[in-house]
Write a structure and sequence with these properties.
By secondary structure, the protein is α+β, with helices and mostly antiparallel strands. It has helices at residues 8-13, 24-33, 38-46, 92-98, 104-122, 136-145, 191-201, 205-215, 245-265, 280-283; strands at residues 21-22, 51-52, 61-68, 73-80, 85-91, 152-168, 174-188, 223-230, 237-241. A 5-stranded mixed sheet has the order 1-5-4-3-2. The longest helix has 21 residues, at 245-265. The protein is globular and about 55 Å long.
């Protein structure tokens, strides 16, 4: 799936003022729980491509439901109304546990707002050479057209690549975990093309990935994507869809249910402490000390 990259630097050159900004905690959660970058999320919030689902009015923070085109899923961003600071980003299940449930109508509205925003960009004036938020199809076409303009080097260079697994944990949250680090040679500076050629040439790569998945103690059924990330530019990624997000969510819920059943069965055999055998020196008869 092509990346929906945001031309943030171009927007700054145009004199665009950004109200929202992420905290350090929010930046970590955005990269951990979604495939978006913090800059992309800030553009979504500033352009009001979200739904305000706040219920407790009068507080200084609001709950903003938005649709992620990269994940094809919905998330909730908590933002300070006065300062614009994004506090954190929650998965829907996490939001249901800590706040309240998000309805299907609200999710459908958030997705409709996102697609309506893309339609407005397509009908924008011809003076705007670069849209504020590019849809994946337009980005893929532009990358295909610009392949001739890629930087070509006379000597071999190397990409340092993180291979990460996007999965659903047993609590229902979307997470990422680094499996291994690779070095990919290239002459043409095209990250996606280099990764595709690596997948064709290295037949043992998926065996290494499967081995690391087992080593990291992840469940294959809960993984919905494998992501290749450029170490120098974390926004430069190549994603392989393994299964739909909702399928991985269902499998994670089944795994969590099996674990609960297993813990319930083993409850009678568990003890709060571990009894170790008595040392031999403690069991030997001790002679009284001679008295002078």
């Amino acid at each position: 799936m092509a990346d929906a990259d945001v031309t943030f630097s171009d927007l700054i050159k145009r004199g665009r003022q950004c109200f929202a900004y992420p905290s350090r905690h929010a930046e970590k959660r955005i990269r951990q729980r979604t495939s978006l970058t913090p800059k992309e999320l800030i553009l979504l919030l500033d352009e009001n491509v979200c739904v305000d689902i706040s219920q407790k009015y009068g507080l200084s923070k609001r709950h903003l439901l938005f649709y992620s085109p990269k994940d094809k899923y919905y998330y909730v961003a908590l933002q300070n109304v006065n300062t614009g600071k994004v506090i954190t980003v929650w998965h829907l299940n996490y939001h249901r546990q800590l706040a309240w449930s998000v309805t299907q109508e609200q999710c459908a509205k958030a997705r409709k707002i996102y697609h309506d925003y893309l339609c407005e960009q397509q009908t924008a004036k011809a003076d705007d050479n670069e849209p504020l938020l590019c849809q994946p199809e337009a980005t893929a076409c532009r990358k295909q057209a610009n392949k001739r303009c890629k930087q070509v080097t006379a000597f071999k260079r190397v990409y340092k690549v993180y291979v990460k697994a996007s999965y659903i944990c047993e609590s229902g949250q979307a997470k990422r975990k680094t499996l291994l680090t690779l070095e990919v040679d290239y002459y043409i500076n095209d990250f996606e093309r280099s990764i595709k050629s690596l997948l064709k040439q290295d037949e043992t790569l998926f065996d290494k990935i499967n081995h690391q998945i087992r080593r990291k103690r992840l469940f294959h059924e809960s993984i919905y994507a494998i992501v290749f990330v450029n170490k120098k530019d974390l926004t430069d990624t190549y994603l392989i869809d393994v299964r739909p997000h909702w399928v991985a969510l269902e499998q994670a819920q089944k795994i969590a249910h099996k674990r609960k059943v297993m813990n319930r069965l083993l409850l009678d055999y568990q003890t709060p402490y571990v009894s170790l055998p008595l040392p031999i020196s403690m069991r030997l008869l001790r002679l009284p000390m001679p008295t002078s």
